[in-house]
Design brief:
about 190 residues, Rossmann fold, five-stranded parallel sheet, binds BIS(adenosine)-5'-tetraphosphate, nucleotide biosynthesis
């Protein structure tokens, strides 16, 4: 079993890198942003509430995202392990995740701290052009990341191995750096 968390600013490449990891390590890719967008698409109550926050680049309320994650993480495809892409994004989410994992008798093996300059992030996101990828919303998402999500790294600092990766170069080049570190952890069974 191999359980990983990705922490990084919007557009830094969490989703892009998660796709490589999912394939190589055969673990479930859990992207809370994708799950919320699916709820919006399906017109669920959760989707309706989430949309009002996501359109402004704000975080969706903790209780909603935590319940969604709790249910997802217990699905069969997580038996071999999981990679959390976009969760936890607040201290409250990190603390609740600890409780959820304790109940399931599971632990986090590695946290990937992925980073790039604001300039690179803004360029990538404007290029992608998703509904929430306009300059004003992107700038707010970066601000929200700095104030609410970055502190989550401190929560894991003394508990879990943190891999720090600069997300510059092609996606394949970035992934080569991540894979090297993950293989060390996996092979040492840390
Ligand atoms: P997310 O869906 O998580 O979106 P993101 O952070 O913007 O994207 P990511 O980092 O995955 O970027 P990607 O690899 O795609 O969140 C969206 C919203 O959902 C949040 O603002 C929030 O409202 C809500 N939400 C989600 N989770 C939540 C939670 N836990 N609590 C509360 N609210 C939550 O890369 C971006 C682009 O860069 C792509 O086009 C990609 O092709 C390109 N790219 C990537 N790597 C590259 C590279 N090396 N070189 C060139 N381009 C690259």
């Amino acid at each position: 079993m191999f359980n990983i968390i990705f922490i990084g600013a919007p557009g830094v490449g969490k989703g892009t890198q998660s796709a490589f990891i999912e394939k190589d390590y055969s673990i479930a890719h859990i992207a809370t942003g994708d799950m919320l967008r699916k709820n919006i698409e399906d017109g669920t109550n959760l989707g309706k509430t989430a949309k009002s926050y996501m359109d402004k680049g704000e975080l969706v309320p903790d209780s909603l995202v935590i319940d969604m994650l709790n249910e997802r993480i217990q699905k069969d495809d997580c038996k071999n392990g999981f990679m959390l892409d976009g969760f936890p994004r607040t201290m409250e989410q990190a603390k609740e995740l600890d409780k959820i994992l304790a109940k399931l008798n599971r632990k986090i093996d590695a946290v990937i701290d992925i980073y790039a300059s604001d300039e690179i992030i803004i360029k990538r996101l404007l290029n992608r052009g998703r509904a929430d990828d306009n300059e004003e919303t992107i700038k707010n998402r970066i601000k929200v990341f700095e104030s609410q999500s970055k502190p989550v790294l401190d929560f894991y600092k003394d508990k879990v191995k943190i891999i720090k990766i600069e997300s510059v170069g092609t996606p394949e080049e970035v992934y080569a750096k991540i894979k090297k570190e993950l293989d060390i952890i996996k092979n040492n069974g840390l």
